[in-house]
Amino acid sequence: MGDADVIVIGTGGIGSAATYQLARRGARVIGLDRFPGGHAHGSSHGETRIIRKAYFEHPDYVPLLERAYALWAEAEAEAGETLFRRVGLVESGPPDGVLVAGVRAAARDHALPLDNLTGEETAARWPFRLPDSAEAVFEADAGFLFVERSVCAYLRLAQTHGAELVTGASVTGWRPDGDGFVVETTDRSYRADRLVITAGAWARDLLADLAIPLLVRRKHLHWYACDDPAMTADADCPCFFFQTADGLFYGFPAVEGGGVKVAEHTGGVDIADPLTDDKAVEPDDRARVETFIRACLPTVTTNPVDHAVCYYTVSPDEHFIVDRHPDHPGVVFAAGLSGHGYKFAPVLGEVLADLALAGRTAQPIEFLGLDRPGLAVA
């Protein structure tokens, strides 16, 4: 008998949910991560993440989001704490731009409620200023997730269902071994019948044999002082996502006495390794964010109160890769979430558990497979 039925490599945003899903089904699970849950070295940190259904990136994500919403509600109930604040989301840009047109298309295809607003109507409801000729849409069912809190909740729940969590050692590789797999770490080796790889920025090394051209991109998160009570989550200020002539910018109302969080979704610098990367503030990045604040958030100052760095692991077409290893069906993985994956954590965890234990899933993930058009795999 091996050490576990399933080993999960990487217990951050997606891995924590996969570990929970496997454990609650009765599998013997070991979750391996070099850092404890909620750490700030990868992608799943920075206080908050937006969750939304009218998905401009591709309408095919919407059924997965519907399932994710249901699973977030179940996780909240089981954890006994707030993981999701439904404050809504304002998205703005040119009516024919990628953002607003994409949101409207997803809402139309899936009959999602959406309010269409002019710049004047938007400014009358919230302290936002739209660029000239921009339009806005408001999704009331959107909001934000408490990201570190949610990762830790899933890991805690996984342990209550019997999962073993191992931190403090790095995974150096894996290999097939008979009818199972061996995972090597800097501390010891582990053996299991199945393997789930949810390693974020380190997935490209652990999936190197697939030659997927994944890029790891440094992204900055900024918090700014604001004394406008209308810009707080307690006042139900919505999250915001704007397409401007300078790029795509997004942010969050002030939460629990903190500043207003603002970041650029576009841009970023491709790096080799998050553990050796320089995480200092980049003046050009901060300048772009502050230009956006001055143009679109009239009551937010440009006095910084906090800063963090996270990482996007970007696939060639910027869509997720969720599949079974073509040569080793007992290995399943989620990689290349491209900066928009955290909101899907519970449903991707469910999908990975399905694939690991049953070899199939009822969730519609075909468009995320390895063999799709647009994913250049050597």
Notes on the protein architecture:
- With 378 residues, the chain is α+β, with helices and mostly antiparallel strands.
- It has eight helices and 20 strands.
- It has helices at residues 13-24, 62-79, 98-110, 119-125, 147-160, 203-206, 283-296, 345-358; strands at 4-9, 29-33, 48-51, 84-85, 89-93, 115-117, 135-139, 143-146, 164-167, 171-177, 180-185, 189-197, 215-224, 239-244, 247-252, 260-264, 269-271, 304-314, 321-324, 331-335.
- The strands form three sheets. Strands 5, 6, 7, 13, 14, 15, 16, 17 and 18 form a nine-stranded mixed beta sheet that branches. Strands 1, 2, 9, 10, 11, 12, 19 and 20 form an eight-stranded mixed beta sheet that branches. The protein has a three-stranded antiparallel beta sheet with strand order 3-8-4.
- A hairpin with a 2-residue loop joins strand 10 and strand 11.
- Helix 1 (13-24) runs parallel beside helix 5.
- The longest helix has 18 residues, at 62-79.
- The two termini are 36 Å apart.
Distance from N terminus to C terminus (CA atoms, Å) equals 36 Å
Strand content: 25-35%
Radius of gyration: 20 Å
Count up the helices. 8
Low confidence ranges: none
Number of strands: 20
Q: What quaternary form is this?
A: single chain
Average of pLDDT = 97
Order of helices and strands: EHEEHEEHEHEEHEEEEHEEEEEHEEEH
Biggest β-sheet strands, sense, barrel: 9 strands, mixed
**Looking at the structure, what is the overall shape?**
globular
- The helix fraction, in percent, is 25-40%
**Coarse structural class:** alpha+beta
